[in-house]
Structure formats: C-alpha cells, structure tokens
From TrEMBL:
Family according to the record: Belongs to the DeoC/FbaB aldolase family. DeoC type 2 subfamily.
A Pfam family hit: DeoC
Top-level class of the enzyme under EC nomenclature: lyase
Primary gene name: deoC
Pathway, per record: Carbohydrate degradation; 2-deoxy-D-ribose 1-phosphate degradation; D-glyceraldehyde 3-phosphate and acetaldehyde from 2-deoxy-alpha-D-ribose 1-phosphate: step 2/2
Name of the protein: Deoxyribose-phosphate aldolase
Lyase found in the keyword field: yes
Originating species: Cypionkella sinensis
Length: 333
C-alpha cells in the first residue's frame, strides 16, 4: 500500500505532455449548427458526481496540492495598489508556510501557484516581483470585464501588456456576437486577439453567465478554439453566475471534441465563485473523468481565484494537525 507521504508527493509529479499551441482551424459553421447540449442530462451528470467521487485524508491532501499549483492567484479590484500586488506575488511564490510544507513531507519541494493575474496597470509590478520564480504573469485585457472597448483599443491593450512582460493574456469576448449568432465576427475578433498576443498564451473568457444557454456556451467555446485560443475560461468573476459545474462539463466536452477532431489540446480555466476546497475538487473530478490525467496539470488547467488558496491552506493544516484552522490564520498576502 502506498505510504501517505508518497501519495501526497506524487500529486506534484508533472506528467510530461508534448503538445504545441492550438493553431486553430477555419470556422466550421456546420459543426456549430450540429452542436447541442442536453440540459437535463448535464444536470444529472454533475448532480451524481459527489456521490460517486469522494476523497479523504491523504488522498484529499494530494488533490488539493495539485489544485494549488493550478491557481491563477488573482486580484482584480478597483482599489488594487502596487503594494497589494507585491504581497500577492510573494504569496504565489510561497503559498504554504514552510512548517506546513515540512509537515506534509514536502519541505524539499518548491511549490508555487500557476500564475498571478492582474490588470494591465500592474503587469510590470508583478513581473518585477516574480523575477526568478518562474511564475508567469497573466493580464486581463480587451476592456475587461465588459469587453466593450473599441477593437483597436483592445488590441493595443494586449500589445502593451505583452510589452510589459505578461506571458498570458486573458481576453474577454464580445458577448453580443454570441447572443446574435454572429459567429464570423466572434471568430475574426478571436483571431485578431490571438495574433496580437504573439508568443503570449491567450485565454478566452466567455462570461458564460451572460450567454443565456449551454448551447451558446458550447458554440462560443468551439469558435474561440477554432480561432486559436490556448485556453477557454468561464467568467470574469464579475457576472452574477460564474463557473458552475454544468458550465464546466459543457466546456470541457467541447475541448474533448475539439481535441478528437484536430489533435490540439486546449486548456480550461474555471473562474468566479470557486472559493472552497469542495468547489475545486468538483472541478478537478470533472476534468479527470472527462479529459483525463494530463488536464490536471497547470499547462492545461488553471483556476481563477483569490480566496481559494486560503481555504486550501486551511484544509491542509487541519489535515496535518487534526484541529480546526481558522481563515484568519491564512491571509492571502
């Protein structure tokens, strides 16, 4: 039987994945027209998951450590400051206390979050604060969160963030294109965004809570992937409804279909409303069952979150000590 420490350590073993960036493909309107989502079947699938999938103790600690490495640690508030961003970066570089890492048998391992996500104004600050850590900076762009800035302004914002050192760009699509079925406009917009990003990876934020139906979510996901998105992402976190399990299931099944048809692996980023370990475990279970083990790694799975890290740290400390750990013991930064 695997020893507990071995089980926890194995959570962080990176499975090598040889895959290039998604090059995209021509817009396939016939594929879109054939796309359907069975709402009741989707609801039944996600409702059954907690009863079929449960992890406890060392197994849960292993899943949570893997989740930690996939977090895009985020601050996107109107009152952000350089000081707050620097504290966030320090937390990303040392997400767990050394004592807790030692207690988990991970004292010799370097743990970091997957990225730090900020507004363009703070990209340069975050890049400087993370120098030497290997942690990429992601910038929200293209008129985030509404995405209603002029198209040329959006492209200049992307270029400015890349120039400041952002390795990843989280763009927001124009929701009107989805709601009116103007797929060519969405495709062209996404292609322009991808081109403006250059070598920086691009995550397409769909704002699923504003797309009205799961079919719209599936079709928008496909169009963005056809246009070259490296990741598809649920939400800005500013909508009333964000990364629900039903939306996740819908989006990752389109990723699976796209991979089956083109051979390209596209990443997935749920964001908004993922604040507890229960939330993130549900997302991980769906990823594992629908896409397989490679999609649990940070190059194909990210979690947009701010408070989630505190709950993961709290649960890991409770696991180690056996006693309840209060939230105020685990500040973000």
């Amino acid at each position: 039987m695997m020893q507990p420490e071995t089980q926890v350590r194995n959570a962080l073993v990176q499975q090598p994945i040889a895959h290039g960036r998604n090059a995209g493909m021509p817009l396939d309107l016939e594929w879109l027209a054939q796309t359907r989502v069975n709402q009741s079947a989707t609801d039944r699938r996600v409702a059954s998951l907690p009863g079929r999938r449960s992890v406890k103790k060392d197994a849960q600690a292993a899943w949570l450590l893997k989740a930690l490495t996939c977090i895009d640690l985020t601050t996107l508030s109107g009152d952000d400051t350089s000081g707050r961003v620097r504290r966030l970066c320090a937390k990303a570089a040392q997400p767990l206390s050394p004592a807790l890492q030692d207690a988990l048998g991970m004292g010799d391992r370097r743990l970091t979050t997957g990225a730090v996500c900020v507004y363009h104004r703070f990209v340069a600050t975050a890049v400087e604060a993370l120098a030497g850590t290997g942690i990429p900076v992601a910038a929200v762009s293209t008129g985030f969160p509404a995405g209603l800035a002029p198209h040329d302004v959006k492209l200049r914002e992307i270029a400015a963030s890349v120039a400041d050192g952002a390795a990843e760009i989280d763009i927001v699509i124009t929701r009107e294109h989805v709601l009116t079925g103007n797929w060519q406009a969405l495709y062209d917009e996404m292609r322009d965004f991808r081109a403006a990003c250059g070598d920086a990876h691009v995550k397409a934020i769909l704002a699923t809570g504003e797309l009205k139906t799961l079919r719209n979510v599936a079709q928008a996901s496909l169009v963005c992937m056809m246009a070259g998105a490296d990741f598809i992402k649920t939400s800005t976190g500013k909508e009333a409804v964000n990364a629900t399990p039903a939306v996740t299931l819908t989006m990752i099944r389109t990723i699976r279909d796209y991979h089956d048809r083109t051979g390209y692996r596209v990443g997935y980023k749920p964001a908004g409303g993922i604040a507890t370990t229960k939330d993130v475990l549900m997302q991980q279970f769906l990823m594992k069952e629908e896409l397989g083990r490679p999609w649990l790694e940070p190059d194909l799975f990210r979690i947009g979150a701010s408070s989630l890290l505190a709950d993961i740290e709290r649960q890991l400390e409770t696991h180690v000590t056996g006693g309840y750990s209060a939230f105020n013991r685990h500040p973000i930064g």
